[in-house]
């Protein structure tokens, strides 16, 4: 199996299409969407239509915090993220809302666990942005099923890889784009696949990752896409222009 993992798409159709095309060219045989499919971007319905077709064809998917926010935006707006959620909510059809509402927070497939944020209290959306938080997520996954060897998540909008050594010491690895990393199943791994639709590391290229079960490798990818078109979609909507500026800056 070659599993392509996409997270934090944030209604960015151009980034999603570019990453899916890249994954197909890399020989992907299974797709997984790790939440935050909507929010911030200008094309939520087209993004959800694409993902819903993929899920109908066998792709895996879990729900993210911005998916929840779009389902039930607050009545009183306190920040621009909530403003975007209110606009997104108004765009979604009943079928889109039903799809998001029925997505699980966790999805296990044999020795793999998919989650948007952390396996440790996934409903609270904690950020796995440190070794401590990675250790908590991995421990929670093991508590669910001792056979889970790989936890795949997003939420942080950057790419990282954590693993446990034979002495149970947690290590963090900074991946290089396009370079396969050996991830043998005798260790436990946690990968943060990065944001497809809203990178925040100063690089405008979209992110995703590919897990090859036969080769026992994980490859983190960066993919160029038409971020100008994605910015235009935002500016043609009622969303704040700042959401478009972030795509141009990779922030």
TrEMBL record:
Pfam families named among the record's database cross-references: Metallophos_2
CDD domains: MPP_superfamily (cd00838)
Domain Calcineurin-like phosphoesterase span(s) in chain numbering: 1-211
Superkingdom of the source species: Bacteria
Gene Ontology cellular component terms for the protein in this record: cytoplasm
GO molecular function: phosphatase activity
UniProt-listed PANTHER family: BLL5683 PROTEIN, METALLOPHOSPHOESTERASE
Family listed: Belongs to the metallophosphoesterase superfamily. YfcE family.
The protein, known as: Metallophosphoesterase
